[in-house]
Design a protein that fits this description.
Two copies of one chain form a homodimer.
Chain A (H helix, E strand, L loop, with lengths): L12 H12 L17 H6 L11 H32 L27 H13 L9 H14 L27 H12 L6 H26 L10 H5 L7 H5 L18
Helix pairs in contact in A: 3-4, 3-7, 4-5, 4-7
Chain lengths: 269, 269
């Protein structure tokens, strides 16, 4: 259960629907929320209508922006800003009215708590906002976000090298086997023997952010061209619990088994 | 290191600035991003100007909305929707143009990956969007978000009982000692002996979401009244790595020590 393979990565519609059932059957209905009753208004209407307008972007240019934006907004904010900043100029609304700067709080796995790496959180915000959430009629935004977390977890990062690095020392690469900031940063700090406050650690995170911005843009461009086939999976549908896919790393050999479905009580005849 | 106490919870400005240094010194400068060069436009201007307009809300009513919204948008989306839906009606923009429905992807710790519980992610989105990110000049939104994650981790949840529960069986409470969905849901599933797809697990998560919406509203109301004093801490500033605060639970007794700061090389005279 602890090892992740890519033998079976194309999620089936059946599996997706079983996941939806596991998380909350009956919830897959769009447009019933407290926002749907409001009177029409330009941006407000655009913001909850999917997909958002998308023009293909240059992945390398996007990554350079993300690298530099990291030094202003950190990981999550920088991924969003690198893509929405360009689309704000090319397409205008609803990008211009999205409060990107607020997402600096994704830093350090949400305000330094080491939960989801902001690169992953930012990537999921981007794919779900542009392509749309699954209640809008397409599962692609969610599955692309999931694919990006899998890519992050299983790639030796950072892969992107900026044109003008702020730190010229060699930055080692590490594979996190996890979408979590604590594990990703911790493994890198151990491999590099550098503390959290070091310029090298900061530049490593800026380059990881840029690597993610590059990859998100590549996938969005494929999607725009109608060529995107998802590799995204929903782990909760596979494991019987919401989960990343490195069970052994925390549980050792003693991986708990989720409770099984109970038989229905016999009904009176 | 593994035990969390509340003996010293008021973060000092010095500690906060040291945290900012650890994460990326020099980045605490507002308004230099790619969005700042655009021409003025109503909602776009409002969206990145903080604080957003806030009118006090009824915590119990907000929690009821969140409970029911869980069955449409799950944890993260429901926390945001319960508060922004009301403020959208009371204050209009920039709430009306925020794409709440997209945040259904926070379900199951981000698309079923078990990372940050959506209640925590949603709460942080709400506090940082309303009060503002720390680059807007106030650290309160970030620290309130951090306080809410601490409250989530150290409280037997759910505390909120809806007026008309969809599941009438008793729902046990559990303390997660973690802001992560996998750990929070896993401990509850074990205590309740219920599988992920069970109606009880779903209603438990709906009630946890409602409990968080209640607590967020209480703190925002205090803030509106000028009475909010934060208990929020930034763990990365304390632990030398981005971290939740239950080290032993994954590491056992063998908790790694983060690399120490290296001495500066001697400079030529």
């Amino acid at each position: 259960m602890g090892d992740k393979t890519h033998d079976n990565v194309l999620i089936t519609r059946r599996r997706l629907l079983s996941m939806a059932g596991a998380l909350g059957a009956g919830a897959v209905v769009a447009g019933l929320g407290p926002f749907s009753s409001g009177a029409g208004a330009g941006t407000a209407e655009l913001a909850q209508k999917w997909p958002w307008p998308y023009m293909k972007l240059d992945p390398a240019e996007t990554a350079e922006i993300a690298y530099n934006e990291w030094y202003r907004l950190f990981c999550g904010g920088a991924v969003i800003s690198s893509i929405f900043g360009q689309l704000s100029k090319k397409a205008g609304e609803p990008y211009r009215s999205f409060p990107v700067d607020a997402f600096i709080f994704l830093e350090g796995g949400v305000s330094g708590w080491g939960t989801i790496c902001g690169s992953n959180a930012g990537a999921n915000i981007v794919t779900n906002l542009i392509i749309g959430p699954r209640i809008s009629g397409s599962e692609t935004g969610m599955l692309m976000g999931s694919e990006l977390m899998d890519w992050y977890s299983n790639t030796a990062l950072p892969v992107f090298v900026p044109k003008k690095p702020r730190v010229t020392a060699e930055i080692p690469t590490t594979t996190s086997n996890s979408p979590l900031c604590h594990i990703s940063v911790g493994k890198w700090m151990k491999a590099a023997d550098k503390e959290l406050a070091s310029p090298e650690r900061k530049d490593r995170c800026a380059r990881v952010t840029a690597s993610m911005a590059y990859k998100v843009t590549e996938l969005l461009n494929e999607w725009k061209d109608g060529k995107y086939v998802t590799f995204g999976e929903i782990p909760s549908a596979i494991y019987g619990i919401t989960a990343q896919q490195n069970c052994n790393e925390c549980h050792g050999e003693n991986i708990p088994t989720p409770p099984a479905k109970k038989p229905e009580p016999a009904k009176p005849a």
